[in-house]
């Protein structure tokens, strides 16, 4: 157990720690003491396992009920940098590095699908489940989407768009952008509210209608079905309902017509700056920002002080 030889210095640190806010959570002196005790008691655990343990002890959870491990890891490293704790040496996580899927015969161009919506029958969205379907989904994105495959983080859902007895496209919904000036101003939430409630915003990070599919209004029709069905599917998978959809459209490639037709609201352009980390920054091309509220009280939920 940690025994201080500098009581006055520790008292100062305990007062200062109340000012530490990590992902919308204020860390109080009692919680700091608990974090220290956990780190010292379970020093044989990896940093990831320590973060899981601290989350359990503090009751620090995401909107879906899972542990806020990434936020906790950042907090632990921040406290170590300030000399308040000492973490165990970082270990090899053993996770496999991401690799682009190898294209197979399954995703070769098919016979053209043309006509009107009424010609191809009802459009449906099928949640992608199982290893084989996930691999197929990733192959399609890797080959036919201009941005390629994307490994989702946090909570996510993959959909196949189906109709006429065949696959017509893919949709990926996952975590929202962490900070976005025009979106955040439009919502009206504070920084702490954003950090607490960001999980209730879902990003349509990939949308692909296969290039051999030429059916007018199909893209906006499928988006409309996603608007109606995503909340229920998300609830079934992750245990809570999102209240806002967002997406970005690169004007060099698309105008965002299908999002406008599905009644998404255009908020303006991004600044073209990627997420800035310490010692790192990068530029991206400005994108159009579109949003769609999934609940009438979305601002009440997103601007809530309850996390």
Description:
The protein has 307 residues and is α+β, with helices and mostly antiparallel strands. The protein contains ten helices and eleven strands. The protein has helices at residues 7-17, 29-41, 47-58, 69-81, 131-144, 181-187, 191-197, 218-238, 257-261, 298-302, and strands at 21-22, 25-26, 113-115, 124-127, 157-163, 166-175, 201-209, 213-215, 244-249, 265-269, 288-293. It has a seven-stranded mixed beta sheet with strand order 4-5-6-7-9-11-10, sandwiched between helices. Strands 1-2 form a two-stranded antiparallel sheet. It has a two-stranded parallel sheet with strand order 3-8. A hairpin with a 2-residue loop joins strand 5 and strand 6. Helix 2 crosses helix 3 (47-58). It starts with 6 loop residues before the first helix and ends in a 5-residue tail after the last helix. Residues 1-18 and 93-98 have low confidence and may be disordered.
Descriptive tags:
307 residues; alpha+beta; 7-stranded mixed sheet; two-stranded antiparallel ribbon; 35% helix; elongated; disordered N terminus
* Terminal Cα span: 32 Å
User: What's the mean pLDDT score?
Assistant: 83
Shape: elongated
Low-confidence regions: 1-18, 93-98
Q: Name the strands of the widest sheet in spatial order.
A: 4-5-6-7-9-11-10
Tell me about the largest β-sheet: 7 strands, mixed
């Amino acid at each position: 157990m940690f025994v201080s030889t500098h009581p006055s210095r520790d008292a100062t640190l305990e007062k200062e720690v109340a000012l530490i806010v990590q992902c919308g959570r204020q860390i109080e002196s009692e919680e700091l003491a608990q974090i220290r005790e956990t780190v010292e008691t379970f020093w044989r655990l990896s940093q990831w396992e320590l973060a899981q343990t601290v989350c359990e002890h503090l009751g620090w959870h995401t909107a879906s009920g899972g542990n806020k491990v990434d936020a906790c890891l950042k907090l632990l490293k921040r406290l170590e940098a300030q000399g308040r704790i000492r973490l165990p040496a970082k270990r090899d996580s053993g996770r496999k590095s991401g690799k682009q899927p190898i294209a197979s015969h399954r995703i070769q161009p098919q016979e053209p699908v043309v006509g009107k919506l009424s010609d191809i029958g009802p459009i449906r969205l099928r949640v992608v489940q199982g290893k084989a379907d996930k691999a197929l989904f990733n192959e399609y994105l890797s080959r036919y989407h201009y941005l390629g495959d994307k490994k989702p983080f946090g909570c996510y859902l993959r959909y196949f768009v189906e109709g006429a007895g065949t696959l017509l496209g893919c949709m990926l919904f996952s975590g929202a952008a962490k900070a976005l000036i025009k979106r955040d101003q439009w919502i009206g939430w504070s920084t702490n509210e954003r950090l607490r409630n960001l999980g209730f915003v879902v990003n349509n990070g990939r949308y692909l209608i296969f290039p051999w599919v030429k059916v007018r209004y199909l893209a906006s029709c499928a988006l409309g079905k996603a608007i109606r069905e995503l909340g229920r599917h998300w609830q079934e998978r992750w245990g809570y309902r999102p209240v806002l959809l967002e997406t970005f459209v690169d004007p060099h490639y698309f105008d965002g017509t299908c999002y406008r037709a599905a009644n998404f609201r255009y908020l303006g352009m991004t600044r073209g700056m990627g997420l800035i980390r310490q010692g790192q920054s990068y530029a991206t091309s400005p994108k159009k920002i579109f949003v769609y509220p999934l609940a009438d009280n979305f601002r009440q939920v997103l601007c809530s002080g309850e996390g």
